[in-house]
Amino acid sequence: MGQAVSRDDFMWTYSEQPHCSRREKIVKAHPEIKQLFGIDPSLKYVVSAAVLLQILACFLLKDADWTLVLLQAYFFGGVVNHSMTLAIHDISHNTVFGNSRPIANRFFGMWANLPIGVPISIAFKKYHVEHHRYLGEDGLDTDVPTELEAKLFTSSLRKFFWLFFQPLFYGFRPLILYKKAPTDLEILNVIVQFIFDGFILYYCGIKSLAYLIIGSLLAMGVHPSAGHFISEHYVFAKNQETYSYYGFWNLVTYNVGYHVEHHDFPYIPGRNLPLVRKIAPEFYDSLLVHNSWTYVLYQFVMNPAIGPYARIKRKARVAQQFEGNNVLDEYVEAFFTQLGYFKAREAVRSLVSNLSQQCARVFGKKKEI
After folding, report:
1. Residue 340 lies in a domain
2. For the chain, which end, N or C, has fewer CB atoms within 10 Å of the first or last residue's CB respectively?
């Protein structure tokens, strides 16, 4: 368990990511693939059923033994919550209500976020856009481990430790690599999540809240469903940056295993991704495919050629952007406009200004006398 990794640096390249050029070729060869773009009308029902299922599980586990709570968290609740993180991934591409209703998609992402226990939906969205646009670019793609992670977790035992705590590294990495100002929707996401957590704590107890949060942490660490974190972009074959998996875990992960197809066509809902490969097999049949996410995790731990350094990186094309969009501003402004707040404010300012002028004239005349 102590064999060190064979790499001491990332795999730097000066070529562009392959997905844009492949997308152009596929669309040219198979223009009918555009029919797969759009929304997944079933997604809101499937996600809502999963959220309600987790609330029911919280109620059923409120008086359970801690052993049962932990077992359920790993084998059931964690799988559902990991599924919710991937639903949020799909929702971040506006696949529920379409690109014309971005705010509706963001609010639905908060709904999907509830059973996870910690607020991630809005923050994930703003960083995931960069992951697609600037795949592997230094300081822009926070999916790539930090230099510190790559240097510290070099042996099999250390890599296993890194996998176990992967959700924490994944969550806090943007604060090191790419700091962005919190937006109004992020703050709302935190408020909504804390209200829900308080609801679960008050009505179901600490065990139920622990079931949600611990399940999320366990299922995104050393868990078969977490294999996609490694399988997607860690380099297992020379000159291949992204990898797909076509196994049964796709049934509960919104087809995130079809990851090459997803990066080629980010705005095709997960439900339709299998059809991409079916329509254009000549573009995918020659690529290496992972057959088991569990084996991917085993390879990551035991194979010295695979580790945090096994990622393709590029020089950043643009500078980091600290400021974000506070998209609720215009809605808040419209609300206060309807209430007449701004007219009342101007009237008060005008009244105060007139009173000040009159007082100045009165006091000025007294001084002259």
Report:
1. yes
2. C
Burial of 42 from C-beta contacts in 10 A (0-12 / 13-18 / 19+): exposed
Phi/psi of residue 11, nearest 5 degrees: -95, 95
**DSSP one-letter code for 12:** E
pTM over 0.90: no
Same domain, 337 and 273: no
Low-confidence ranges of the chain (pLDDT < 70): 1-3, 331-336, 363-369
3 state DSSP class of 314: strand
Q: What is the pLDDT of residue 302?
A: 95
Q: What gap in Å lies between CA 254 and CA 144, rounded to an integer?
A: 22
As given in the structure block, the two tokens for residue 122 are 């809005």
> Do 332 and 212 reside in the same domain of the chain?
no
Is there a single domain that holds both residue 262 and residue 339? no
Within this chain, do residues 221 and 354 fall inside the same structural domain, yes or no?
no
Flag whether 309 is in a domain. yes
Q: How does pLDDT run across 147-179, given as a tens digit for each residue?
A: 999 999 999 999 999 999 999 999 899 989 999
CA 168 to CA 337: how far, in whole Å?
Answer: 43
Which pLDDT score, from 0 to 100, does residue 364 have?
A: 66
Burial pattern 149-169, b for ≥16 Cβ within 10 A else e, equals bbeebbbbebbbbbbeebbeb
Chain centroid to Cα 17, Å, comes to 21
For residue 291, give the amino acid letter. Answer: N
3-state secondary structure labels for all residues of 150-188: HHHCCEHHHHHHHHHCHHHHHHHHHHHHCCCCCCHHHHH
18 shares a domain with 116: yes
